[in-house]
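Table S2 (continued). Query chain:
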Amino acid sequence: MPKKMPHETPREKGNQKHSGRPGERSANVSEELKRITGELENTDPYAREKAKADLIHLRGPEVAQELIRALNHPNPEVRIEIVRKLGVMEDPQTVNALARILEEDSDVRVRAAAIGTLGNIGGPEAVSALEKAQNDSNRQIREEAGWTLGQAKRKQ
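Corresponding output:
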C-alpha cells in the first residue's frame, strides 16, 4: 500500500489508483476499515471523531461488503458507527444484513441504529424488517420501528 503523505486526506487515500491486481483494492479497503474500527475504540475522543469522519469518506464498490463483515465487531459502539455508515450509503444490498442486526444484535442501541438505517434505505425488504420489528419484545424497538416504518414506506 502506498505510504500516506501528511497532507493526504482519507478521501484522497481511498481514491488512489491501484495496479489492477485482483483483490488489491479490496485488501486496501479491508485494511483501512480495520484501522478505522480500531480507532473507533480509542479512548481519545478526538481520535474517535476522526475515525468517524474517515469512515464516512470510505468509498468504493467493495466498501458495503467490508462493512457488512465488520458488523460482527465485538464492540457495540463500532457496530453503531458501521450501521450509520451503511445508512449514509443507502445501498439496497445491505438491507438483509441490517435486518439480521435488527433481529439478532444483543445491544438495543445497535438495533435502534439499524431501524434508522433501514428507514433511510427504504424499499420492500426494509419495510418488511421494520414491520416485523413492531412485534419485538423490546418496547423501544417496537416504537422506533413503528415511527420509522412511515419513512421507509414513502421511499418505496
